[in-house]
Amino acid sequence: MQKLPLRIDIVSDVVCPWCVIGYYRLQQALDKFDEAIDPTINWLPFELNPDMPSEGQNLREHIAEKYGTSLEESITARERLTKLGADVGFHFDYFDEMRMVNTFHAHQLLHWAASEGKQHALSLQLFADFFSHRRDVSAFDVLIAAAESVGLNSFAARDVLAQQTYANDVRQLEQGIVSKGVRGVPLFVFNGQYALSGAQEVTTFEAQLQRIIDDKHTA
């Protein structure tokens, strides 16, 4: 049986824990449709904190200011995310000095990586760098090392960042996404027709995938 081509656009930020959990839940659902669906994943930029200064901010302090979260609530949330991550095979390594950082440069590198066929691998690498390996994904050296680790040319990556080659393209994409009413991530869009918002359960993704297959067969 010929597989159904399926484009999946994921609106995401590389410092968003729910984007990590949502993606890996989606992947578990896709694994169950391995013989029926041929997915192509495209990552679209969204900055949770577009005004974050270059030096970043302590993550716990940032969350407290943004959401009014107490220390106890922060500890509980981190424990919950760590467990949910483990459930899908991802390691969250939260620590007291962890900082929220600006991700505009990361999104520029991801935009370039798409033209090189490495965007998906780079996105997963940046998730791991930030959440699992305690790396600053706003730093050029970290971004360049991530690019090189997935098979991209490190000199080309440095040029992309230094020259801000895709800054305007990323800004336009971000503005277009916000103009459509997107205020939070992750957002999953299937073939430009079906959308799911948030880190849905695996069963919800499975139901959506089945619905797409059924609609294709009845079209």
Describe the structure.
The structure is a single chain. This protein is 53% helix and 14% strand. By secondary structure, it is an alpha+beta fold. A hairpin with a 3-residue loop joins strand 5 (187-190) and strand 6. The chain is globular, with a radius of gyration of 18 Å.
What would you say about this model in short?
By secondary structure, this protein is α+β, with helices and mostly antiparallel strands. It has helices at 17-32, 59-67, 71-87, 104-115, 119-131, 140-149, 154-163, 167-179, 202-218; strands at residues 4-12, 37-45, 57-58, 99-100, 187-190, 194-197.
Oligomeric form of this entry? Answer: single chain
The sequence of SSEs as H and E is EHEEHHEHHHHHEEH
Mean pLDDT: 96
Uncertain runs with pLDDT below 50, 5 residues or more?
A: none
- The level of helicity is 40-55%
Distance N terminus to C terminus? Answer: 17 Å
Number of strands: 6
Total helical segments: 9
What is the secondary structure topology, with strand pairs?
Elements: E1 4-12, H1 17-32, E2 37-45, E3 57-58, H2 59-67, H3 71-87, E4 99-100, H4 104-115, H5 119-131, H6 140-149, H7 154-163, H8 167-179, E5 187-190, E6 194-197, H9 202-218
Helix pairs in contact: 1-9, 4-5, 5-6, 6-7
List keywords for this structure.
219 residues; alpha+beta; 4-stranded mixed β-sheet; globular
